[in-house]
Design brief:
Alpha-Beta Plaits, Rossmann fold, 4 domains, 22 strands, alpha/beta, six-stranded parallel sheet
């Protein structure tokens, strides 16, 4: 008989109420809107709250969800949105204070089981251990877009040439997106040749994007120059696998950052010990404050669109130019200028999702999205099951989930079975798993065991609900 354990709220509520989870999303901005769009087709009951009626009407016309117009922190509005019987409240309005008060009211008046809030202000985050607990401000999970984006950028600096890097399973397993170029030993060869090239390293290529068309890779699939390849491997082997797909770039040493906001300052702080970092800030007072705060970063008061400033600071020697202001257009234009003047790589922060597809992969090498980082972090908390991590890929069309499996052969559809025996939807691939401290790359004869952390790649997010149901333990396993 399966050992009893306390499961995450989603598994408990699912066992009691079926597969429908009632979620209230506060704020219909870019993050709230994208989150609702991700969840509305996945057997969830979604209610979206915002004080802009027109914005809500547009979303309701497109999607099967409820909308409530009004203040997100109003007890009356929360009651109207269904807070008394909601499973989950996600507060992602533009105001930290509204998000905090909404969670407090949901807990005090309605006893909402799980409350997630987006918090941006660094002062709140510095005191988070004292502020955010059941005895003070009852928030179960905090999402900080600035911190998430900072971590994304640092990972891209750590792995030169990667387009996306995500660590999973206690950072033991990683998912990497990289473009294949001539010069990579595997380019022009079938994937099966990877075993000959790297006989002591296991890796699973889970997706290839070729001319905007997704190819499900097989052993006979030939890697072509220009392919965008997504692979899963033990974190320690990332660079070895990347070296098969392109000539490994030298470590980035000379960095120029534009914008001294929370993200720019955070990136500079983390990089200044191992890199030569220059930071350009338009606001004189902020530049002075940053110069005092950042011990080894050279801070300049100026405009990144000023060619003479870039020439004076030897833009031609810069390995990565990173534009991180709050203005998408300014970021794009300064990055284009920097590349024209000789910067080797350009990375930009983009708020509007529509811009990302337009610019990434052209003159600008990488576009980083706070919304996409935030959505990935949120999805890990709202998916059904014990899911520590979710990574959103290809701007939300694909997804990777880390699922911890529970139960035994009687209570689970997964445990005790070979991967080849699982009835997975087309386009769903088990890439790897963490068993204790051992990373195991998935093969067809691998048998899944209780407490394995399974990394599942989902080519199309329409299969997410199917994956949740397959991995869900029986309702008797409580």
């Amino acid at each position: 008989m399966a050992q009893k354990r306390q499961l995450p709220y989603t598994q408990q509520s699912q066992a009691e109420k079926g597969f429908v989870v009632k979620i209230i999303i506060l704020g219909a901005g870019q993050v709230g809107k994208t989150l609702a769009e991700n969840l509305v087709s996945e057997d969830n009951d979604i209610t979206l709250v915002d004080n802009e009626e027109k914005r809500l009407e547009n979303l309701q016309d497109k999607h099967d969800l409820r909308v409530v117009t009004g203040s997100a922190s109003s007890p009356h509005i929360l009651r109207e949105a269904g807070a008394p019987d909601a499973d989950l409240l996600v507060a992602v309005t533009s105001a930290d204070e509204v998000n905090m008060i909404a969670c407090q009211i949901a807990y005090t008046l309605f006893n909402t089981p799980t409350k997630i809030a987006r918090i941006r202000e660094r002062e709140y985050l510095r005191e988070k251990d004292k502020l955010f607990n059941q005895n003070v401000i009852p928030i179960d999970h905090i999402i900080s877009p600035e911190n998430l984006v900072t971590e994304d950028i640092i990972r891209l600096i750590d792995y030169p040439g990667a387009l996306q890097v995500a660590h999973l399973a206690d950072k033991q397993i990683s998912l990497v997106v990289v473009k294949a170029y001539y010069g990579g030993p595997l380019v022009g060869y079938a994937i099966s040749a990877l075993r000959d090239h790297l006989p002591y390293i296991d890796c699973r290529i889970v997706s290839i994007l070729r001319f905007d068309k997704v190819i499900r890779p097989q052993g006979s699939t030939v890697i072509e120059a220009g392919d965008e390849v997504t692979f899963i491997c033990a974190t320690q082997h990332i660079k070895a696998v990347m070296s098969e797909l392109q000539r490994l770039e030298k470590p980035y040493k000379r960095i120029m950052i534009v914008g001294g906001g929370n993200i720019g300052a955070g990136v500079a702080k983390q990089l200044e010990e191992q890199c030569s970092v220059k930071l350009i800030e338009r606001n004189a007072a902020k530049a002075t404050a940053l110069a005092e705060k950042l011990a080894k970063t050279l801070v300049f008061h100026g405009d990144a669109s000023d060619q003479s400033l870039l020439y004076e600071e030897h833009i031609e020697n810069i390995d990565v130019f990173i534009s991180l202001t709050s203005d998408d257009e300014a970021n794009i234009m300064s990055a284009l200028l920097a590349k024209r003047l000789g910067a080797k790589k350009a990375m930009v922060l983009i708020q509007r999702m529509a811009y990302i597809n337009m610019i990434q992969g052209g003159t600008i090498d990488i576009a980083v999205s706070p919304q996409q980082a935030t959505i990935s972090a949120l999805l890990g908390h709202v998916r059904k099951g014990d899911i520590p991590n979710v990574v959103s890929l290809r701007h939300g069309t694909a997804e990777v989930m880390e699922i911890v499996v529970h139960g035994d052969a009687e209570t689970s559809n997964i445990i005790g079975r070979k991967i080849s025996e699982l009835k997975l939807p087309t386009g769903v691939i088990i890439g790897a798993l963490l068993r204790g401290t051992e990373v195991i790359i998935a093969g067809k004869n691998l048998v899944i065991e209780d407490e394995d952390h399974v990394i599942v790649y989902i080519t199309d997010k329409k299969y997410v609900s199917d994956v949740e149901k397959i991995f869900q333990p029986s309702a008797f396993f409580i």
